[in-house]
Design goal:
heterodimer; A: alpha/beta; eight-stranded mixed beta sheet; six-stranded mixed beta sheet; 25% strand; B: mainly alpha; disordered C terminus
């Protein structure tokens, strides 16, 4: 069989210095029809630029191909040189022969047109269909990407669909031209893990159905294991390693590949839960949450009562013991962050109580936020940032306090001369260390970590997690660790609570919950975790959408019935 | 310090800063009485003298030195412009901050009042206020301040709304920081940059409004010199003594140009979005 795409010594640069300082230097690869190539690398490695060069979208971002060749075999057997092709020739290639899906489906869809119009337009442009035929084709395309009630959904606007649905629509549009090559640029990065698994399963099925080749770009080396035939690992614009999937994953030859494989947190179904007892008596609860409910009114107008409320958190009970880590896992919208915010008093609970034990000093509960760029005031220097909790507690900024600052900075691994620097002078990982130091200023008993390592690159993430484990031992901290990432949770948690649609559905010792999940949602969540070990595993998932959390005014949910599955393992019994 | 360096490197910003520096120097000399002649003294023999070495910009109908009057006039205009913009930015910031921070009905009430003020053209509203209170320097300052307060309220309210939802404000709440601390350290400190730009641009408009008011005889009262007043007195003598109109006119024009160039440059320097586009 002949090659579909043959890239040789590709060099791409940006701006005036494109030729002298390329960001992609010398990439070569071939793709056979129906084959999937994964390009893996961390941010700034040049993986997206490489892919965007193939359909020459890189031109629109100010990039220029300064060397090498990209040969695309047309259906009639001739070879088109994409690196030199003019814009007219490219128009016939983009969409028709090479389709593309992007990371953020919301920004790739036009918000003022229905999805039906947008898909139909793709058919009219790429297949020269008339409007009626295009409409019919659009419906079929939606059915092909497994969107239920396709005929009705055609009239929906992008904002009426969930993130996963939108990405399906994008895929339907990319498939409209019946491309022989699909470029997917981080197509699941913005999605929840169960939705990600659904999209991956869909892509695998479509690939088999249509015999389409695919270039799959991702930062998550664990994700490609299930879908790719071959793999390129990129770092700083160079392919440091490339080869067949199994060869690269099983016998990585380059240090960077090994480093990536090691840094990716592996989920092992509860087996990796560390056997480390909390240091002090764990039977003293430091935070007790009972029957917590948080509701946000919807449809509130001047002089009008709200029509209903979003029941963001409903009937949540748990206790956090001193020196322990309780992880709350769930997907976006499950209410896990709202629970954390209610504990810190950032949102007002509609019902229920949060009791925190009086701390060793001052305020016993502190918080570290997800985005280290947003949680530090850019106009304050490190001294000002670290002083804030102390000032709020009525302390004076004197030499003693400065001594505490430098010792904490040292403890979290930041240079001691950081005090007069500003947040923008630090990297993301360093900023998160800064946030941790700030949270420790008042010697708290509990630190709430709201997705505190999610925004970090994998290798940085691993080091910050190690730091958190060390600090827990040293300062006898209890963590409320909020995360969507099961592999990270497995490394840090003593106990795990799984949240779904505002409620806890399963709670217990980490090893028990992760190895013997009882609730169907926990099972789904665990089945969706990608991993290198799960190579070739088919993601078989139930695609029930999350129920709406908007309830009419005065609605009270039925009381939960709990069943016991072990000494410290409860799960919710669903009524159906 | 960083801003001064960036200004010196900015092509048009350098020009704007230089113009304003010269004006400030002239205004200072004018207010301290360091003028070539007494601005009020009438040199009867040299009435309507064209510019020469004694009277650099000529003399007016009753023999007063135009250059000296201009220097004092710049001082007067700058006093009114700085005073009114100072008051406007103070009250506007306060209103915008409170409206944005507390929201709800207070926000609705304050911002609707601001909308009403904003609905009138600046000069018309200033005229109305002066017509009610009577002309004078103090009234000019107050009128121009009232006219420009809504602009500052709007400029401050927007960023306040987005800043108060930022994580660092939530973080401050979790430490138990006082409201005053959050407002001053987390909100105001982050508002300094957009406010600086707005103040500079507002100074240009205030200069023009002041000139307009005194041109109509509603600002500074004679015999005290003022840029608008000088133009108003000169307009009947345009044929015989064009210097009487040209010099005050150019003075107003370059003053506004200077503030605008400076404001645009500050915006380029402070706003990262425009900075990226320029790069």
């Amino acid at each position: 069989m002949s090659k579909l795409l043959s890239v040789r010594d590709l060099r791409v640069g940006f701006g005036a210095a494109a030729a002298t300082t390329p960001v992609v230097h010398g990439i070569s690869f071939d793709i056979m029809p129906g084959e999937t190539l994964a390009i893996v690398g961390e941010s700034g490695s040049g993986k997206s630029v490489t892919a965007l060069s193939i359909n020459r979208l890189v031109d629109f971002g100010g990039g220029r191909i300064v060397g090498g060749s990209i040969g695309l075999t047309r259906p009639d057997g001739s070879v088109l040189e994409l690196a030199q092709a003019d814009e007219r020739a490219l128009l016939g290639v983009r969409g028709r022969e090479i389709g593309m899906i992007f990371q953020e489906p919301m920004t790739s869809l036009n918000p003022v047109h229905t999805i039906g119009d947008q898909i139909a337009e793709a058919f009219m442009l790429n297949r020269d269909m008339d409007e009626q035929a295009a409409r019919r084709a659009a419906r079929e395309a939606l059915e092909r990407v497994r969107i239920p009630d396709a005929a009705q959904r055609l009239r929906y606007y992008p904002h009426q669909l969930s993130g996963g649905m939108r990405q399906r629509v994008m895929i339907a549009m990319a498939l409209a031209g019946n491309p022989r090559l699909l470029i997917a640029d981080e197509p699941t990065t913005a999605l929840d893990v169960t939705v990600q698994a659904q999209i991956m399963a869909l892509l695998a099925e479509l690939k088999a159905e249509l015999g389409m080749a695919m270039i799959f770009i991702t930062h998550d080396i664990g994700l490609v294991a299930g879908i790719a035939d071959s793999i390129i690992v990129m770092q700083d614009g160079i392919a440091v390693e490339q080869g067949r999937l199994d060869d690269v994953l099983d016998a990585p030859s380059h240090d960077y590949t090994r480093h990536l494989l090691n840094a990716v947190p592996h989920f092992t179904g509860g087996r990796a839960v560390p056997d480390r007892p909390a240091r002090q008596t764990p039977d003293r609860p430091v935070v007790s949450v009972s029957d917590l409910a948080v509701r946000f009114p919807v449809g509130r107008r001047l002089f009008a009562r709200p029509a209903g409320a979003i029941h963001a958190v409903e009937g949540v009970d748990f206790e956090l013991m001193a020196g322990q880590t309780l992880a709350i896992v769930g997907e976006s919208g499950s209410g896990k962050s709202t629970t954390a915010r209610a504990i810190l008093g950032l949102v007002e609970p509609a019902r229920g109580r949060v009791v925190t034990a009086p701390g060793r000093d001052g305020r016993p509960v502190q918080m570290v936020f997800q985005d280290p760029f947003a949680s530090l005031n850019p106009r304050l220097d490190v001294e000002g940032l670290l002083a804030e909790p102390a000032i709020a507690a009525g302390q004076r900024v004197d030499t003693d306090l400065r001594k505490r600052m430098t010792s904490l900075l040292d403890r979290v691994g930041l240079p001691a001369d950081s005090l007069d620097r500003y947040p923008h002078q630090f990297s993301g990982g360093q900023r998160q260390r800064l946030c941790i130091a700030r949270a420790l200023m008042l010697n708290p008993d509990v630190v709430v970590l709201d997705e505190a390592v999610s925004a970090l690159d994998v290798s940085v993430q691993a080091r910050v997690l190690d730091l958190l484990l060390d600090l827990q031992r040293e300062f006898d901290l209890a963590y409320l660790f909020i995360s969507h990432d099961m592999a990270v949770v497995e490394r840090i948690a003593h106990r795990v609570a799984v949240m779904y649609a505002g409620q806890i559905v399963e709670i217990g010792a980490a090893a028990a919950v992760l190895s013997q999940p009882r609730h169907s949602y926990t099972r789904n969540l665990i089945a969706a975790v990608p991993g290198i070990e799960r190579r070739r595993q088919r993601y078989d998932l139930d695609t029930t959408p999350v129920p709406s959390l908007v309830r009419p005014l005065g609605y009270e949910p039925p009381a939960a019935r709990w069943r016991e599955a072990g000494a410290d393992h409860l799960y919710r019994q669903e009524s159906s | 310090m960083r801003i001064f360096k960036a200004l010196a490197a900015h092509r048009t910003g350098r020009v704007g800063a230089a113009i304003i520096a010269i004006y400030l120097l002239l205004a200072l000399c004018g207010l301290l009485g360091l003028t070539p002649h007494d601005p009020l003294q009438q040199f009867r023999i040299d009435r309507l003298s064209p510019p020469d070495t004694t009277y650099w910009m000529g003399t007016d109908l009753i023999g007063r030195d135009t250059a000296s009057r201009l220097m004092v006039g710049i001082g007067q205009s700058f006093l009114i412009a700085f005073g009114s913009v100072g008051l406007a930015s103070l009250f506007g910031t306060l209103i915008g901050l409170l409206a944005g921070w507390w929201g709800g009905w207070l926000d609705g009430l304050l911002m609707r009042v601001m909308d009403v003020l904003l609905a009138f053209p600046a000069i018309l509203l200033a005229l109305l206020i002066i017509a009610i209170v009577g002309p004078g320097t103090g009234t000019s300052v107050a009128a121009i301040a009232i006219v420009y307060t809504p602009i500052f309220a709007r400029v401050v309210r927007g960023p306040t709304l987005s800043l108060k939802r930022r994580d660092f404000v939530d973080a401050a709440r979790t430490f138990g920081s006082s409201q005053r601390y959050i407002l001053s350290r987390h909100l105001l400190l982050n508002l300094v940059a957009p406010l600086t730009v707005q103040v500079t641009l507002a100074l240009a408009w205030a200069l023009l409004t002041e000139a307009g008011l005194s041109f109509l005889g509603l600002g500074t009262q004679p015999p005290a010199p003022s840029l608008g007043l000088m133009m108003s007195e000169a307009r009947n003598l345009m044929q015989q003594a064009p210097w009487l109109l040209i010099f005050p006119g150019l003075t107003v024009m370059f003053g506004i140009l200077g503030f605008n160039l400076l404001g645009d440059a500050l915006r380029d320097i402070i706003d990262p979005r425009t900075r990226r586009r320029a790069a």
